[in-house]
TrEMBL record:
The keyword Cytoplasm does not apply. Residues 1-22 form the signal peptide. Keywords: Glycoprotein, Membrane, Receptor, Signal, Transmembrane, Transmembrane helix. Its main location: membrane. It comes from the Eukaryota. It is a single-pass type I membrane protein. One of its GO terms (cellular component) is membrane. This is Natriuretic peptide receptor 3. One of its GO terms (biological process) is signal transduction. The keyword Cell cycle does not apply. It comes from Petromyzon marinus (Sea lamprey). It is found in: Membrane. PROSITE patterns: ANF_RECEPTORS. Transmembrane segments: none annotated.
Amino acid sequence: LQAAKTMLTMVMLLMVPTSLCAHNHERDHGDSRLVRVLVLLPADRARLFSQARVRPAIEYARESVTGNATLLPGHRFSIHFADSGCGNEALFSAVDFYTEHGAPHLILGPACEYAAAPVARLAVHWGVPMVSAGALASGFSSKDEYQTLTRVAPAYAQLGALFLAMFRRFSWSGASLIYNDDMKERDCFFTVEGIHQTFAKQHRGFELQPFSFDSEHQDLDFGEMLEGVVLSGHAVVIICAGADSVREILLEAHRKGMTGGDHVFFNIELFNSTQYGEGAAR
């Protein structure tokens, strides 16, 4: 939490002055020293990046800046929290804020991919900085499209770099990717995409075989899926799914004799995903 507080303080110091200069021509309701900060985060407390969890760090950052006479002297911060959900709610909240207050000087969040993408494009149109601890999909690395976006967490491509280093270390040539694609937030899809794109950029040929499933709308047959893994000849299996699905996959792998040392299983824990509850395995 202390690291998050310090980081947010630095964000306000480094990004707000530039944004203020860029928007000094806009309506400020008579106060040119008022800094408008729009925080777009889920109201759902179950999410790691919920408003309730992040608000203390943001308030600490504001107090740190306003309490120091040498940091942005004379400026006041108006911080507005709005529910981003994990979809279009974030864009609607941003537009509503603009209608009432004008463009913000700084946007914090959203974290979910489908919420962050339209807001990040809007931030470019407004010319304001946007800082997110999410937006980890590979597409957000494009500075042509997301010019004002700063991500403060490792992108999924960095996870791909980790696996790439392990593949080189142990001379692995390929892997099977088993992941849940719920067609909603698609956390696992974007995670696997980051791994796949990292490997695809390498000159040495690595073969990655994807196996996707939908845990909600599909009769699952993990046995048939694992038979495909065996036929692929890959000793490495990378799994991204909910806790119960991971348990069922590993139990089925054990029944098929795949846990005797011939295969290596990696389970990707998505720290910001709704996929993980307690789970039967816990």
